[in-house]
Amino acid sequence: MTTHVVLVRPWADAQAGSGCCSGDTREAIALDAPVCRVHETPAEAQVVGRAYRLLRDRLPDVDVQIVSVSNTAYLLPTTYRAARRRLGRAGALRAASRATTAGAVLVDGERIGDIADLGPEGVLVAVGNRLAR
Fold first, then answer.
1. Residue 81: which residues within 8 A CB-CB, separation 6 or more?
2. pLDDT of 118 strictly over 90
3. CB contact set of 6 (below 8 Å; sequence gap of 6+)
4. Which of 74, 90, 95, 100 has the fewest CB atoms lying closer than 10 Å?
5. For 50-84, how does the pLDDT look when each residue is reduced to its tens digit (9 = 90+)?
6. Helix 43-58 / helix 115-132 crossing angle, nearest 10 deg
7. What's the rounded Cα separation, in Å, for the pair 100 and 102?
8. CA angle at residue 11 from 44 to 77, to 5 degrees?
9. Which SS3 state, helix, strand or coil, does residue 87 take?
10. Contact, 69 vs 2, CB < 8 A?
11. CA triplet 41, 46, 48: central angle to 5 degrees?
12. DSSP label at 101?
């Protein structure tokens, strides 16, 4: 059975500004050529990206996904179903609620930590410890 790891990315709105990276090019309408500014990636996104790459590189048999914290249509039912087997209905509801926390690290629906608290290497260790059980 495949192990599923979900990294819940922090609140970050890729559509917040316009420009080439957000897919919104309103700024370039009146210009001869599109203008693309130098973009800075938020620190939280860099931590999520590094954790993702470490997990993919070091644990190739694990399915690793990055999910937006706003994607409750995926997070709530997926986490609830996975947790209900272990925790019952009430415990599964609490677990599903915690799964929608920005920065959550989930392994097979179980929240094992927070990306910001653990850091990329800590996420790798925590996932490895959870897999060893």
1. 92, 109
2. yes
3. 64, 65, 66, 67, 75, 78, 99, 104, 105, 106
4. 90
5. 999 999 999 999 999 999 888 889 999 989 998 89
6. 20
7. 6
8. 115
9. helix
10. no
11. 130
12. S
Buried b (16+ CB within 10 A) or exposed e, 53-83: ebbeeebeebebeebbbeeeeebeebbbebb
Backbone angles phi, psi at 68, to 5 degrees: -70, 140
Give the DSSP letter of residue 59: -
Tokens of 78: 């997926």
β-pairing, 104-107 vs 110-114, is: antiparallel
pLDDT above 70 coverage of the chain, percent: 76
Question: Which tokens belong to 104?
Answer: 């959550």
Query: 3-state SS of the chain: helix, strand, coil percent to 5?
Result: 50, 15, 30
C-alpha span between 15 and 30 (Å, rounded) = 20
